[in-house]
Design goal:
The chain is of the alpha/beta class. The protein is 40% helix and 20% strand. The strands form five sheets. A six-stranded mixed β-sheet has the order 5-6-7-3-8-9, with helices on both faces. A six-stranded mixed β-sheet has the order 14-17-18-12-19-20, with helices on both faces. A three-stranded antiparallel β-sheet has the order 2-1-4, with helices on one face. A hairpin with a 2-residue loop joins strand 19 and strand 20.
């Protein structure tokens, strides 16, 4: 028997003008629930959570709260004004019967002392203080709006553990897939003003959502056919009895009204990156570089070789120096010691986390075109700025609006639109996932997967790092950085824990690096490379290039949609050759990588 809800919203509707934001939304939160509230940016998730918290009143519908139930709400932008310390701010949220020790405990758990001046806090520190204030009373219901925003990976991990241990029911909005997967047991999807509930966690949500959208599209197609059939009858049918004609005309009008008023799912962002001519094989070589600020080492004795096609994720706690390291590797900031050598034919495009590249006073169009006309060139093709921005979900009315009028998610999409229109072979992405919804993240991941250049990525999104990176460069503390092969999960498996800094182990490689792959390295001993190994290292890259060319040619043959019907034998032969070329390429890359790792170890 299910428990009665602590909070229940029924048939909630709200309109701010124009299309209704909420039409028939419902949330029922029972004791012990772990609910993920998901939906596109602008779908009304935050507004619905505020209605549940009693901060916003709906136009219609009902809100029920179990008598005596306590609710705490975490806003996206907490206000700490009027408090001398963060501890005072957190303690002010405690009730008469709450444990006062939890205020300091939670602040320390989230990496703060409690003595910080609220007026001097960064966005991440303000978020930690607000989380401590929200969680400290251990309420019956927790309503959390983007709790991981501005948090680094250690803080996200601690927050997850804290939420898992609470008795409170939780409703959370988040764009962090891993966070949602680890915490939710049911999912509410807010889409076009209505809610649908899945009694399973977020891990099952996307398959369920896609099935619903496919069924909707099939029903819409069926409706279109029915309208077409009725319109054909109107034009060409026999008059028959007048009453029957009137009835069928009314039915046609109803069908047209149903189609006209039906709200379709919001379109998807369409991303295409403008790629420049391929860079040289070596993109960035750092040789024993070091950097310190006010006596504190940020980078110490780091050697790193970044090759064409590498996708390196840079991770670590806030303040570890990730952005500083990024600037050193790209030549923006000179190291105190050592040398950074940039490769040939580099075309670099950067997306910075602070979005400083966006002038709030410029219009969206001028931001994209630099004030030069109304078109933008993408991969050599001119596109009208309205059409291009439509691919990033901007309306024609927004094109002439100032950047200052855009939401955080819209600014993130504008920055992506501008960066992807610029030809590049080296993408430098500093927290690119901030404020992007899950669907846009999916498409960005697909784009990066198809991108043929090199990527340097700073992110606190574990799932994004897993999907996009071939190696992780991890801050180990005291200026030491170690490289791990694979994505974030592979780094955790090799390291034995997440991002929290650990002490150096005897097995730690010299010069702050480890091999890029988790594959075993041949025993180096004291020997040198054999002639056969040297020859293979020199010739294998050309072999890989040749295989890539073969794959491209075979894929071009198979891209012909009429090939199978026209020449089935050629289709099957090309398919088999393509599979064999992919196998040969994978084997060749593995052989080259193993030898390259051996060479680095012998020369290290």
């Amino acid at each position: 028997m299910s428990l009665p809800p602590l909070v229940h919203l029924r048939s909630v509707a709200l309109t701010f003008g124009g299309t209704p934001l909420l039409e028939s939304a419902e949330i029922a939160v029972a004791p012990g629930d772990r609910i993920g509230l998901v939906g596109r940016n602008g779908s009304g998730k935050s507004t619905l959570l505020k209605i549940a918290a009693g901060l916003v009143e709906a136009d219609r519908g009902s809100r029920f709260v179990q008598p005596g139930a306590t609710i705490r709400y975490l806003p996206q932008e907490p206000d700490l004004a009027g408090f001398k310390t963060t501890l005072a701010y957190v303690e002010a949220g405690l009730g008469p019967g709450d444990d006062p020790y939890r205020a300091r405990y939670l602040l320390e758990r989230l990496g703060m002392t409690g003595e910080e001046n609220p007026s001097l806090l960064s966005g991440g520190e303000a978020r930690r203080a607000a989380l401590a204030r929200t969680l400290a009373p251990e309420p019956d219901v927790l309503l959390l709006d983007e709790p991981t925003n501005h948090l680094d990976l250690p803080a996200i991990d601690r927050l997850e553990q804290e939420l898992k241990g609470l008795r409170s029911a939780v409703v959370l909005i988040s764009h962090d897939r891993r966070f949602l997967e680890n915490l939710t047991r049911s999912t509410i999807w807010l889409d076009r003003g209505i809610t649908r509930r899945l009694e399973r966690g977020f891990a099952a949500f996307e398959e369920w959502r896609d099935k619903i959208l496919e069924e909707e599209e099939a029903e819409r197609h069926k409706l279109d056919r029915e309208i077409l059939r009725e319109e054909h009858w109107v034009r060409y049918g026999v008059t028959a009895r007048r009453k029957r004609n009137v009835r069928r005309m009314a039915q046609l009008a109803d069908l047209r009204k149903t189609r006209r008023e039906g709200r379709r799912a919001v379109g998807q962002v369409k991303m295409t990156a403008s790629e420049a001519e391929a860079s040289g094989a070596q993109v960035i070589v750092a040789d024993k570089i070091a950097k310190s600020f006010e006596g504190r080492p940020i980078v110490k004795d780091l050697s790193l070789r970044l090759l064409r096609g590498d996708r390196i994720g840079i991770v670590g706690p806030n303040g570890a120096g990730k952005t500083t390291l990024l600037n050193m590797l790209t030549g923006v900031l000179a190291p105190d010691q050592g040398e950074v050598t940039l490769g040939t034919k580099l075309a670099l495009v950067t997306i910075d986390q602070k979005r400083a590249a966006l002038d709030p006073n410029l219009s969206v169009q001028d931001t994209l075109t630099g004030g030069r006309g109304d078109s933008v060139t993408v991969n050599g093709q001119a596109k009208h700025v309205v059409g291009y921005l439509k691919d990033f979900l901007f309306t024609p009315l927004q094109v002439r609006q100032p950047v200052s009028a855009l939401s955080g998610g819209e600014r993130a999409r504008l920055l992506l639109a501008r960066a992807l229109a610029t030809p590049s072979n080296l993408l430098v992405l500093d927290e690119p996932t901030n404020d992007l919804d899950l669907e846009t993240l999916d498409l960005l991941e697909e784009l990066l997967g198809d991108y043929e250049g090199t990527i340097l990525l700073v992110s606190h999104d574990r799932d994004f790092l897993d999907r996009c990176c071939t190696a992780i460069l991890m801050a180990e503390g005291d200026g030491r950085w170690i490289e791990y092969g694979g994505g974030y999960s592979d780094m955790v498996a090799q390291r034995g824990e997440g991002v929290a800094a650990r002490k150096a182990e005897s097995a730690e490689p010299r010069n702050g690096t480890t091999p890029k792959s988790a594959s075993p390295v041949p025993d180096a001993g004291k020997r040198k490379l054999t002639f056969k190994e040297k020859h293979a290292l020199e010739t294998l890259p050309a072999r890989m290039d040749a295989l890539n060319r073969d794959i491209a040619k075979l894929q071009a043959v198979l891209d012909d949609p009429g090939l199978y019907a026209r020449d089935a034998v050629r289709f099957e032969k090309a398919t088999a050759l393509l599979a064999k070329a992919h196998e040969d390429l994978a084997a060749t890359e593995e052989e080259w990588l193993t030898l390259e790792m051996l060479r680095e170890e012998l020369e290290g």
